[in-house]
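Standup notes
- DV: blocked on the single-chain target, sequence here:
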Amino acid sequence: MAKKEKKRIGNFQIEDIKFSFRFTIVAIILIFLILLFLSNLVNIFEKIENKANKESTKKDSLEDTTPFFSKEGSGVLMYLPAVDSRGKGIYTLLKVEAFPGSGRTLTDIDNLLFWADTQHSIRIAKRVAENITGKKEEDYDVIYTIKANASLIGGPSAGAALAIATIAALENKELNKSVMITGVVNHDGSIGPVSGILEKAKAAKEAGATLFLVPLLQSRDVVYETSKHCEVFGNTKICTTETRPKKIEVEKEADIKVREVSSIQEAMEYFFK
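- DV (later): unblocked, structure below
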């Protein structure tokens, strides 16, 4: 009798293990399905956000005729190329307004992170614009408005565009809407290098530009391609991800005309008719 009871206990243990194994398999499948559902849900929200951003940008397009704060003032609109947190090229809208005042610089930027990066560029851009135009700072108030996506990365690379737009606003000049620019603005009006050239060029193309101005030596870019390499050592297969740099022509890759400029004065020749 004791031996038979032991066998029954043994059978119970085997069935218990089988049940645990089945439960584990079912749990793994359920977790996989939940992760797949969440991944699809995130993609849906991203598509909705991108659509909303595009509609918002179209609403605040370069054809905007919103009146400025002063009838005696003038203002311009232009697109800024940038790179978002996923490394994708995007564009946002910049409005610069200038009118007689007491030398104030006002900013209306809906993203504090972007504002922190951009405020220094605004100061330099305004100083460069004043040096080029001969306008006195204390005679004008300038307002900078940037519609910045929540995931936008950038600020310093908008410096050249900020300077060009400020000059246009101070002198009441019309900008060539088919031109976009990226580059850091220096105190002497020279244009410094930036990153993400190819992505920004693609964004410029998407925004409708036909000419993209970049800093010197940046009409060519370097992108990094990754590939998986596997080797077998005995009974073990080891795989590694390898990265290789590749030189590209930005103009060909982005399908937009690209020109290098070294200074704001040089860039002005393309922006002003």
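- Follow-up: The radius of gyration is 28 Å.
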